[in-house]
Specification:
about 35% helix; alpha+beta; about 300 residues; binds cytidine-5'-monophosphate
């Protein structure tokens, strides 16, 4: 009998986020390129009398501990699929900033799907896990997948993307998050009712990824949600500019923000940028890491 299962799951940045018009469902058709980056949460599932969530790490007190947490819903889905009671303790050791545009909540949901599947020895086929992930949220399938992928539909219809080498990233993070739903709404408002353009990933960007060409990728970073995020929080525009002035190859809001993502040439430029952003006093914290990295993986099982 399994005592506990721990899954490690990364955060993500969208190196391209093209957003189409709002559909009848309220969602938007996307054309996005996700890249998983090396900032990780660890989710441990163990036996409990009832379903409960606890948090660890610097953001522990901001983690929802009820059914609002997608991880809770993920445990219920797996329990239903394999005929178990969802009585597990989900411990989330959190390093991915919350409500930051880095898919932290979706990452925990993906990790919980995998952890519960292993904990109950359910053997749910991968395509079924992917379908369950998509019902939880648009970013959850990618957090299972990891690496670098094209996301179509709501961002949940994935195909792999050719990528060479490693890209270095610096992230400026903030204690106060932004609401994804509100940033999409603001984007619609700024574009007006007659906006009809379908999103498309430029082939130049795909070839920059395939060549491992960081300067070209830096120039091609694009996010259709960026304007709304910088209108909602004007200092984000100044921080993006400061990153470029301090040597970044490109700067972009990550997902719906507020995290600002900077692509840099190498480790040493990353350290220079971290110091410059910290000295600006405009950001709450600065992280640096690389991508792509793998998606959710079981890292330990205790029996
Ligand atoms: O799918 P998820 O729950 O992560 O989405 C959060 C919110 O983001 C949705 O309620 C919706 O307002 C917005 N969204 C959207 N179009 C997408 C993905 C998300 O409008 N493709």
């Amino acid at each position: 009998m399994t005592k506990s299962v721990t899954v490690r799951v990364p955060g993500k940045v969208n190196v391209f986020l093209g957003v189409g018009p709002r559909e009848f469902s309220g969602y938007h058709e996307l054309a996005t390129i996700f890249q998983a980056v090396g900032i990780y949460d660890e989710v441990t599932v163990s036996a409990s009398e009832s379903l409960r969530i606890t948090g660890l790490g610097p953001f522990a007190n901001q983690i929802p501990t009820d059914q609002d947490n997608l991880a809770w819903q993920a445990a219920e889905l797996v329990a239903r699929a394999c005929g178990q009671e969802p009585s597990v303790h989900i411990q989330i050791d959190k390093s991915i900033p919350i409500a930051a545009g880095m898919a932290g909540g979706s990452a925990d949901a993906a990790a919980t799907l995998l952890a519960c599947d292993a904990f109950w020895n359910a053997g749910i086929p991968r395509d079924q896990l992917d379908a369950m992930a998509a019902t939880l949220g648009s970013d959850v399938p990618f957090m299972l997948h990891g690496g670098c992928a094209l996301g179509m539909g709501r961002g949940d219809v994935l195909s792999p993307v050719m990528i060479r080498g490693n890209f270095h990233w610096v992230f400026a993070v903030f204690d106060e998050g932004l609401s994804t739903a509100q940033i999409y709404e603001k984007t619609d408002e700024l574009r007006g009712l007659d906006f009809e353009t379908e999103p498309e990933v430029p082939t130049e960007l795909l070839s920059a990824l395939a060549r491992g060409d960081a300067p070209a990728l830096g120039r091609l970073l694009h996010n259709d949600l960026q304007l709304a995020a910088t209108v909602a929080r004007p200092k984000l525009g100044r921080i993006l500019e400061q990153g470029i002035d301090s040597g970044a190859l490109g700067a972009i809001i990550s997902g719906s923000g507020p995290t600002c993502a900077f692509l840099v040439r190498d480790e040493s430029s990353a350290i220079d940028l971290v110091l410059a952003l910290k000295a600006s006093g405009l950001v709450d914290d600065v992280l640096h890491t690389h991508g792509p990295v793998h998606g959710a993986r079981v890292i330990s099982t205790s029996r």
